[in-house]
């Protein structure tokens, strides 16, 4: 099933949690428990194969992905899920704190990278919303390219769509770590066309 990035206002966001550790899954559930009631619907799987099969069958709003799973390790986990679900926003949530790995995962299609042990409920919620916003802006840019094929897309590094409400989050996000707290802006005109708050 194809994925289309959505911004529901009334229904819960549908989150695919790909995490094999029961201990880490309990911790993540604790973070979600601090969110407003009914904001998120979570489905957890412990292997990449299960995640890929679910992503084929159901249009999730976002995936939280551990890179080291029983059937896949490292960035291959991301590339395999991204190939299976190219329009699914993916936030890497793993225990490895390494700037080179952060940069690599963003270049390979992750919307963000969070390190376990350095995340609270607010950071997790903003990462999820930011990932969905960023994927929608990326979809808009792809649509514009199709209409104007002569215009080459400039994307030397990961795009960090910044609006004032995301500034505190970006200082702690992967984009903030690699590009500074202001990241790289997606043009305001693109944000308006995508329906993003400025």
Short description:
It is built from 8 helices and 5 strands. By secondary structure, the chain is α/β, with parallel strands linked by helices.
Question: Low-confidence stretches at least 5 residues in length (pLDDT < 50)?
Answer: 4-8, 154-159, 161-172, 179-198
Shape: globular
Which oligomerization state do the chains in this entry correspond to?
single chain
What's the CATH C level of the largest domain? Answer: Alpha Beta
**Biggest β-sheet, characterized?**
5 strands, parallel
Q: How many DSSP-defined strands?
A: 5
Mean residue pLDDT: 79
Could you give the order of the helices and strands?
Answer: EHEHEHEHEHHHH
- Integer count of domains: 2
Stated plainly, the CATH topology of the largest domain is called Rossmann fold
Q: Please list the strands of the largest sheet in the order they lie side by side.
A: 2-1-3-4-5
Specify Rg, calculated over alpha carbons: 16 Å
Query: What separation lies between the terminal Cα atoms?
Result: 31 Å
Q: Architecture of the largest domain, according to CATH?
A: 3-Layer(aba) Sandwich
Strand portion:
5-15%
Helix/strand-derived category reads: alpha/beta
| Tally of DSSP helical segments | 8
CATH homologous superfamily descriptor of the largest domain: Response regulator
Percent helix: 40-55%
Q: What would you note in describing this structure?
A:
With 198 residues, this protein is of the alpha/beta class. The protein folds into 2 domains: 13-135, Rossmann fold, CATH 3.40.50.2300; 142-193, no CATH class. 42% of the residues lie in helices and 13% in strands. It contains 8 helices and 5 strands, in the order βαβαβαβαβαααα. Strands 2-1-3-4-5 form a 5-stranded parallel β-sheet, with helices on both faces. Strand 1 (13-18), helix 1 (22-33) and strand 2 form a beta-alpha-beta unit. Helix 1 (22-33) crosses helix 5 and helix 2 runs parallel beside helix 3 (75-84). The relative contact order is 0.13. Mean pLDDT is 79; it is low at 4-8, 154-159, 161-172 and 179-198.
């Amino acid at each position: 099933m194809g994925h289309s990035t959505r911004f529901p206002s009334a229904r819960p966001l549908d989150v695919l949690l790909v995490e094999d550790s029961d201990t880490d899954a309990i911790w993540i559930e604790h973070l979600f428990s601090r969110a407003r009631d009914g904001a998120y619907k979570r489905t957890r799987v412990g292997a990449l194969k299960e995640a890929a099969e679910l992503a084929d069958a159901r249009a999730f709003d976002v995936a939280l992905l551990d890179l080291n799973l029983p059937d896949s390790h490292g960035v291959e986990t991301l590339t395999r899920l991204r190939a299976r679900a190219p329009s699914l926003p993916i936030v890497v949530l793993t225990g490895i704190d390494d700037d080179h790995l952060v940069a690599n995962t963003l270049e390979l299609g992750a919307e963000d990278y969070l390190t376990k042990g350095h995340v609270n409920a607010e950071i997790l919620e903003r990462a999820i919303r930011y990932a969905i916003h960023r994927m929608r802006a990326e979809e808009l840019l792809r649509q514009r390219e199709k209409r104007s094929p002569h215009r080459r897309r400039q994307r030397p590094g990961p795009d960090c769509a910044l609006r004032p409400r995301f500034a505190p989050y970006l200082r702690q996000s992967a984009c903030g770590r690699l590009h500074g707290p202001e990241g790289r802006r997606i043009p305001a005109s693109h944000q308006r066309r995508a329906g993003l708050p400025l």
